[in-house]
Design goal:
single chain; 15% strand; globular
Length: 191
């Protein structure tokens, strides 16, 4: 699915105004990529990042030129959706609305402004992918052969961190703390 922020007040940090939501066929495993615009290069990046090392048999996508160009560049067959026939893209619409609702919920709970939606959307998708179901496995473990280890941190949680030495993070005072207080904005996950 594709989400466009029509007005300036909906733009995210870094000038991100569009989002590409990519999911598997059944909409269970998903990712959201915040974009500055609708380009074929951005669409290709999103699909490649989502694929990782897996082979994609077919892409279900709308008729947007950037999607068609990216599909052709990747040589992946297409299953068309039919304009005006909601049944043909109902799964994609459910995933899109789920990500929009989940992102909004995270922003409300974290009491953060809408401009951080690119981080909230990515965090929502990741946490939904690693959530364990009744069988004790997660969507991520089924896709990537294993669960992630480590702590699950809520979006917007206050965190104390040590700034990277390469970053200018202010001066350290002799008796001051070496750590900083920040807000957790999500994970950086490799495909």
């Amino acid at each position: 699915g594709h989400v466009i922020s029509d007005t300036h007040d909906l733009h995210g940090l870094g000038g991100k105004k569009d989002a590409r939501i990519v999911s598997d066929r059944f909409g269970k495993y998903k990712a959201c990529y915040a974009l500055k615009g609708k380009t074929a290069a951005d669409a290709v990046h999103g699909v490649l990042d989502f694929m990782g090392d897996r082979c994609v048999q077919r892409i279900y996508c709308g008729n947007a030129c950037e999607l068609e160009n990216s599909r052709e560049n990747l040589s992946i067959p297409r299953a068309k959706t039919l304009p005006g026939i909601p049944r043909s893209n109902a799964r994609a619409e459910r995933v899109r609305w789920g990500v929009l609702d989940g992102t909004g919920t995270l922003l409300i709970h974290a009491r953060l402004p809408g401009g951080v939606w690119p981080f909230a959307a990515s965090h929502y998708c990741h946490m939904d992918n690693v959530r364990k179901d009744a069988s004790g496995s997660s969507r991520r473990s089924r896709k990537h052969c294993g669960d992630l280890t480590g702590q699950e941190i809520p979006f917007g949680a206050a965190v104390v961190y040590l700034p990277a030495e390469t970053k200018k993070s202010g001066t350290h005072r002799k008796w001051g703390p070496t750590s900083r207080l920040g807000v957790f904005a999500g994970y950086d996950i490799q495909p």
